[in-house]
Design goal:
- Two copies of one chain form a homodimer.
- The first copy, chain A, has a domain of 180 residues: Acetylglutamate kinase-like (Carbamate kinase, 3-Layer(aba) Sandwich), CATH 3.40.1160.10.
- Helices cover 37% and strands 24% of the residues of chain A.
- Chain A has eight helices and 14 strands.
- In chain A, α3 packs across α4 and α6 runs parallel beside α8.
- Chain A starts with a strand and ends with a strand.
């Protein structure tokens, strides 16, 4: 099976022009077939605020009303995505910017209202790996923003980590797929106060022990659950660390296997 | 040669939800390979105004400073483009939204500063018909917004009529290409005060006579020059009229040939 890398970057890279440019160079230099997934960061909040749209949070989680969805569509789908694509073209990476609505690549269901109504937020239900692969086979590099659609004309704000793992699961039907989650830390840390204490390898067994020993922090828990979900569904490995893990010089990051 | 239709819609259709839905149904029902090009209309102006960005006009033409370009990228490339794509998916048209930066499809040069500095406005220099055709051959329907790039990482605001004619010229290397300019009028009018006085056929010869007789209004002149430019460069025919010209019921529109 041919290899495919799916790289996710968060708001901290998107928001800083230098970090973004550095990352995009690393991404372009990465050999083989690849897909980029990006979040949007605080830019959406800033623009919403300028437009007089209040950011509504419940229990620390954003509520996506119709106005907020419009801002997200503008910022993630337009401003961020298209500038990333234009920058990648300079680096000879033939990028194509996508939401889940484009080529019907990622469908989702609007999250059901239970205690909280999250509004126009989608939970991924179907990744069209065959359509996405048509782009890859044509030597295009898909760049996904954190927006999907419900197939009935409604765009939906969707967690970029979930998009990454779900697209990876879908693509693993065709490719030997690895995920790279780029974030602020060097990896999953043994000791949160020591940035260098990276746990280089985690598997299902050692994960149980880490959980038992209280090493996994609250913020890391959903990310790791997401990783194991992807691994159980066909993804080869998940790497977590800072962007330099995309180079051969840095081997100080976390690799998670099943 | 296989046939390809390139349809351009303007702001008047984009801005009105009912008009847009009606148009998209007609577009979806249109047989054969096709491409959609859309402008953005007043929505960008409205959002710019809400963000406190003044729309600068010189001699009735918009100046695109960096802030305005950002709004255009958000509105045309994000809000409008992605909603059109999501709506087309419902109609079983497998749309893919694009700027000229995506798959390096349309390159342009920033307009040189002469008497007026138009800012971040692009004049199309190269249409990558082979890349666009890869999407068409994969049964995807390209939906272009009015943004191109300079190949050096800069997005540029670009006239949607020009994008339409330039993409049509490029695609005519591979397809028998027809343009449909959808606008407010039923076609080119013999008598501007009579909406039904559509001139059904125009060619180079009759065009000269219309010019001489003062039938062509100032607003129509650049559009028609644009049409003849496309026809001279390989496009089969250009149709101008309201959206119902896409149906077989309406034959009251203007067809321009060389």
């Amino acid at each position: 099976m041919e290899k495919l890398s799916i790289i996710k970057i968060g708001g901290n890279i998107i928001e800083d022009e230098n970090s973004l440019n550095e990352f995009l160079t690393l991404f372009s230099n990465l050999e083989g077939k690849k897909i980029l997934v990006h979040g949007g960061g605080k830019r959406a909040t800033n623009i919403a605020s300028k437009l007089g749209i209040e950011s509504k949070m419940i229990n620390g989680r954003r509520i996506t009303d119709l106005e907020t969805l419009e801002v997200i569509t503008m910022v993630y789908g337009g401003l961020v995505n298209k500038n990333v694509v234009a920058k990648l073209q300079v680096l000879q990476t033939n990028a194509i910017g996508l939401t889940g609505a484009d080529i019907n690549s990622i469908q989702s269901d609007k999250r059901p209202v239970k205690e909280i109504d999250f509004g126009f937020v989608g939970d991924v239900t179907k990744v069209n790996h065959i359509a996405i692969d048509k782009l890859i086979k044509a030597d295009f590099t898909p760049v996904f923003c954190a927006i999907t659609h419900d197939g009935n004309g409604q765009l939906l704000n969707t967690n970029a980590d979930t998009i990454t793992s779900q697209v990876a699961v879908g693509m693993s039907e065709i490719y030997e797929t690895s995920i790279y989650y780029c974030f602020e830390l060097n990896g999953v840390l043994q000791d949160f106060s020591d940035k260098e204490s990276v746990i280089k390898n985690i598997n299902s067994e050692t994960y149980k022990k880490l959980l038992k020993d209280g090493i996994i922090s609250d913020g890391m828990l959903p990310k790791l659950e997401n990783c194991f979900d992807a691994l159980k569904n066909g993804v080869l490995k998940v790497n977590m660390g800072n962007t330099s893990m995309l180079t051969k010089e840095n081997d100080n990051f976390t690799t998670i296997t099943i």
